[in-house]
Amino acid sequence: MTLTHKVLQQLSDGHFHSGQSLGESLGVSRAAIWKAIQQLQQKYEIHIQSVTGRGYRLPQPIELHDIDQISAQLSSQTNSHLNSIEILTSIDSTNEYLLKAASLGQVSGSVVLAEQQKAGRGRRGRTWISPFGRNLYLSLLWRFDLSMQDLSALGIAVAVAIARAVSKYTSDHKIKWPNDIFWQGRKLAGILLEVQGEAQGPVAVVIGVGVNIGMTNEAGRDIDQDWVDMTTVCEQPVSRQTLASAVINELFHAVTDFEKTGLAGFRREWSSLDMLQDQQVEILIGENKISGVSRGINENGAILIEIDGKLKTYMAGEVSLRPQRATTSE
Fold it and tell me: 217-273 pLDDT, tens per residue?
């Protein structure tokens, strides 16, 4: 563990710590502490308050990921399939990290978490805002002996998995097709699946999950849609370790079940959480906009849209959905 990370651990309680006390605790000079503070602010973009006579502190406490605490909460089923868990301080993208590892032969069942992503990715090329130590940024590598076509509905199953993890805290969440988790109309979590392999299999899939836990208002200003975090949902702090463990458990449960049942084991549960069921929606395909009524999903996970009395299907990655604004007449 680097000195910088040790200093951050000391500061994580949100209390003031003098440079002298930090130096004595860690066995280094005050100058070394000052350099570590500078690195935390510049490299990791962590705001640290400095007050003469009092020392340094974080504006708010943070809960750094702890591999022992996470591992202690994993189920026996998860442990039977788990290859490894790795916690990274800062990285461009957990998905990108595992995609590179997969190309080099990384074993199925590998999990990576990060305290910060510098270039977190969402669906359709969007940026996933990932401030240091505030939310959950997690990816799982899983290798399937299935074709890419057989995996077309995997995102639906993963959405159900994340909804199950969130259900331990609230029952007011919904899934917006194909796999975004919303709470009272505001985005709480997102999922990104990226695939490597042959069309007919086998296939390596990296499943990326981002859950807002304690998003700062400053970072949230860069998000281009209404959002919410778990702290708001629960009206109290939510443990990053406990939520991470719940997400990992549900992901392993979902991928192993999907191998056995495909979408059939998830479709009913997904439909019960469908945010857009029977609502007027607007389909965006390139520059074209099509209006219709959302009628759920088919056996392949495609969304069914009723347009002029006829059902049409649209697959993930081809369309974006927005609730259609109601119009009034006088």
Answer: 777 888 888 899 999 999 888 999 999 999 999 999 999 999 999 999 999 999 999
CATH of the domain at 284: 2.30.30.100
Residues noted as catalytic: 123, 187, 322
pLDDT at position 170 over 50 = yes
What local confidence, expressed as pLDDT, does residue 329 receive? 37
The pLDDT confidence band at residue 306, using thresholds 50, 70 and 90, is very high
CA atoms of 174 and 224, how far apart (whole Å)? 19
**Residues in Cβ contact with 149 at an 8 Å cutoff, skipping those fewer than 6 apart:** 199
pLDDT of amino acid 288: 79
**pLDDT value of position 241:** 96
**Residue 265 and residue 169 share a domain:** yes
Please report whether residue 143 resides in a domain: yes
Which amino acid type is present at position 16?
Answer: F
Q: Are residues 8 and 135 in the same domain?
A: no
Alpha-carbon distance of 303 to 301, in angstroms, equals 6
pLDDT at 325 exceeding the cut of 80: no
Residue 50 and residue 169 share a domain: no
- Domain range for 252 is 67-272
Contact 214, 12 (CB under 8 A): no
Number of domains in the chain: 3
d(CA 119, CA 306): 37
Rounded distance between C-alpha atoms, residue 89 and residue 101, angstroms: 17
- The answer to whether residues 17 and 56 touch, using CB atoms and an 8 Å cutoff, is yes
Question: What is the amino acid identity at position 324?
Answer: Q
CATH number at residue 48: 1.10.10.10
30 lies in the same domain as 116: no
Task: Please give the pLDDT value at position 327.
Answer: 43
Strand partners, 180: 176
**Reported pTM:** 0.90
Provide φ and ψ at 252, rounded to 5°.
-65, -40
Shared domain for 116 and 248, answered yes or no, is yes
**Considering 237, 252, 272, which residue would you say is the last residue of a domain?**
272
